[in-house]
Design a protein that fits this description.
This protein is mainly alpha-helical. It has one domain. Helices cover 74% and strands 0% of the residues.
């Protein structure tokens, strides 16, 4: 569920990373790439990977 993902995201990230994690859930990837998160590309990639893993754990993605 969404609450499952939100709990994992809240526990995993802080500040800019937390904001970006929620953006990665809410925005199409094309828009996400254009937004200025203040994070490095590697940090952004790591956040997207972790967030996707949380979605899998919570049963939102197969």
């Amino acid at each position: 569920t969404c609450a499952c993902v939100a709990g994992k995201v809240d526990a995993a990230f802080k500040d800019k990373a937390l904001t970006f994690a929620y953006q990665s859930l809410a925005q199409p990837i094309g828009e996400l790439v254009q937004s200025d998160s203040g994070l490095s590309e590697k940090e952004e990639d790591d956040i997207v990977d972790k967030t996707f893993a949380f979605m899998k754990e919570c049963g939102l993605v197969k």
